[in-house]
Specification:
α1 crosses α7, α4 runs parallel beside α5 and α6 runs parallel beside α8. The protein contains 10 helices and 13 strands. The protein is of the alpha/beta class. Bound molecules: nicotinamide-adenine-dinucleotide (NAD) and uridine-5'-diphosphate (UDP) (2 copies). The site of one uridine-5'-diphosphate has 9 residues, from α4.
Length: 312
């Protein structure tokens, strides 16, 4: 049994991670400021004897004693991270410094939830970890992209300078139950629109691609990375290489939900990446990990979740 800190633990991914770590017999301290996270996501854990929830903003120092740290605190949806962009950069950068300072003091292994956004709008396809990316430093996505890139820099400098035991994970688009219904990301938007009979909003002409990973696969990759051999730091891509255009995604959601929604087209947001697909060779060879859940099956679970949420 380990004592494990999960920052951003009441968010979409964080709450699933808390479930998994508790199921493995660990003690979990969930730290969150509830900016995009929800108490409902962890309500079922509040009476658990090995679970503790703490309201705290990671841009402020945190003094606790744990064995491992998963640093997930940061809004992930463009709508939310652009709402207060200065706070987004602070969360990524100052949050990383505080969690790295904590890890240094207590000699804990620390994992960073980084992102495929470090590759920006990529001219290399699919993206492998040795690609340096093509990121606009001054655009509306930069608070997130550059914040996450700087956090990676900090992780590797604490590793080189202070010999910190780090793991850096680059997460590609992930979906599943407990996404916020107003989250603004494409999978939750399309499903909620289809279930409500509203128009499906495609930004641009819908030819841009993303590769969607189901949450259970993502969490198993995250935990496998935390348990990987001592001298493996990453960065490592975790995602599902199945690549779809947004038009294809809309058609799949419409087919699986049924109903009468029509597809409408809206302007493409600035700097929206045109393509995104992970090269997961490194995850396969180092972690023995690959995703198992096909998009249709993951969508089925996610649709069932939103259906019960909207009917409640
Ligand atoms: P989410 O918005 O559901 O969760 C983020 C959590 O962090 C929320 O609970 C939020 O309240 C909390 N938080 C935000 N700022 C905080 C602060 N200053 N102090 C403490 N808590 C704070 O998003 P998610 O999809 O669960 O993403 C989790 C992590 O994974 C994020 O770091 C995100 O960048 C990364 N990631 C996610 C995806 C994805 O597709 N879901 C892709 C790439 C990277
Ligand atoms: N920190 C923290 N918890 C700890 C130890 C450090 O939040 O248990 C914070 C601390 O406030 C500092 C940051 O982590 O701002 C970086 O710590 P580090 O020791 O690397 O740097 P220094 O304190 O020398 O600036
Ligand atoms: N998107 C869309 N309709 C929506 C929400 C998003 O067409 O209602 C598009 C968006 O422009 C982008 C893709 O879907 O090209 C994925 O968007 P999301 O916000 O989920 O993630 P990210 O752009 O960060 O990968």
């Amino acid at each position: 049994m380990k004592r494990i800190l999960v920052t951003g633990g009441s968010g979409f991914l964080g709450s699933h991670l808390c479930d998994q770590l508790l199921a493995e017999g660990n003690e979990v301290l969930c730290v969150d400021n509830y900016f995009t996270g929800r108490r409902e996501n962890i309500a079922h854990l509040l009476q658990h004897p090995r679970f503790e929830a703490m309201r705290h903003d990671v841009t402020f120092p945190l003094f606790v004693e744990v064995d491992q740290i998963y640093n997930l605190a940061c809004p992930a949806s463009p709508v939310h991270y652009q709402f207060d962009p200065v706070q987004t950069t602070k969360t990524s950068v100052i949050g990383a410094i505080n969690m790295l300072g904590l890890a240094k003091r207590i000699k804990a292994r620390i994992l960073q939830a980084s992102t495929s956004e470090v590759y920006g709008d990529p001219e290399v396809h699919p993206q492998a970890e040795d690609y340096w990316g093509r990121v606009n430093p001054i655009g509306i996505r930069s608070c997130y992209d550059e914040g996450k890139r700087c956090a990676e820099t900090l992780f590797f400098d604490y590793h080189r300078q202070h010999r910190l035991d780090i793991k850096v994970m680059r997460i590609f688009n992930t979906y599943g139950p407990r996404m916020h219904p107003n989250d603004g990301r494409v999978v939750s938007n399309f499903i909620v629109q289809a279930l409500s009979g509203d128009d499906i909003t495609i930004y641009g002409d819908g030819s841009q691609t993303r590769s969607f990973c189901y949450v259970d696969d993502l969490i198993s990759g995250m935990v496998a990375l935390m348990k990987s051999r001592d001298d493996f730091t990453g960065p490592v891509n975790i995602g599902n290489p199945g690549e779809f255009t947004m038009l294809e995604l809309a058609e799949k959601v419409l087919k699986q939900v049924g109903g009468t929604s029509k597809i409408t087209f809206r302007p493409l947001p600035q700097d929206d990446p045109k393509q995104r697909q992970p090269d997961i060779s490194l995850a396969k060879s180092e972690l023995g990990w690959e995703p198992r859940v096909a998009l249709e099956d993951g969508l089925q679970e996610t649709i069932a979740y939103f259906r019960s949420l909207l009917n409640a």
